[in-house]
Each structure stands twice: as structure tokens, then as C-alpha cells.
Amino acid sequence: MFMTDCRGRLKMMDRRISSLLSLCTKAGMLVTGEEIAEKHLRNGSAHLVIIAGDASDNTKKKFVNKCFFYQKPVRVFGERDELSKCVGKRNRTVYVVTDSGFAERLQILLEDEIVR
Fold first, then answer.
1. pTM of the predicted structure, to 2 decimals
2. In sequence order, which residues have a C-beta less than 8 Å from that of residue 32 and are 6 or more positions away?
3. pLDDT tens, residue order, the chain (116 aa)
4. Which of 9, 19, 110, 115 is deepest in the core (most CB within 10 A)?
């Protein structure tokens, strides 16, 4: 899936990942935003945390540490604009998948993307 950022450059995210994120959003199994992400980590409903690669170092450190503490998988992937367009919300850097099936499939796809 091709997307443009604010400077008009084309970027490519794996179509399977963007489609699965969109489907997950439509199914109501993806929440976005730092405060809501923290809430879902605390109550145990988070199955996967995705952090945008261009998130601040403080945000990355904070959520990597929280995921380590709560023993939840975390992946740093994509950019804020790409991920935001996939889910239909602007300027989000933290995404939490609350369904185990979607989370497992996304982890597989994200690992394949990293290997390539």
C-alpha cells in the first residue's frame, strides 16, 4: 500500500500488515493512544503493542519497559503517518491489539517484514 507523507514522498508498508491493522480497527480490536494503551496493559487486555518508529525516545522506552514488566510483546514498526492512515486516526504513535488472534498474525507478519 502506497502512502504519502506530508512532504509528498511515497512510502511502502507491507499491504498485508496495513490490511490487517485496518481490519483489526474495524473489528474494534485495536486501540490507539498512550493513555489508553497504558490502561489496556494494566488490565491485561493487551496482546501486542506496536510503537511507531518515529515516536519519541521517551515514548519508546516507556512502552518497552511497561511491556517487559507486564510480559507483553512489543514491536517498533513503521512511521506515525503510515500507521495513522491504516487505522484512520491522526498522529498516533502507540497501538494496542486486544485480540490474541490478530496479535499472533501481526507478530508473524511484522517478523517477516523485519527479516526482509
1. 0.85
2. 87, 89, 92, 94, 95, 96
3. 334 333 333 345 678 898 999 999 999 999 999 999 999 999 999 999 999 999 999 999 999 999 999 999 999 988 999 899 889 898 899 999 999 999 999 999 988 876 65
4. 110
Cα torsion 24, 26, 29, 33: sign:
positive
The widest CA-to-CA distance across the chain, in whole angstroms, is 40
Q: Look up residue 88 and give its DSSP letter.
A: T
Q: What CATH number is given to the structural domain containing 20?
A: 3.30.1330.30
Q: φ and ψ at 88, to 5 degrees?
A: 80, 20
17, part of any domain:
yes
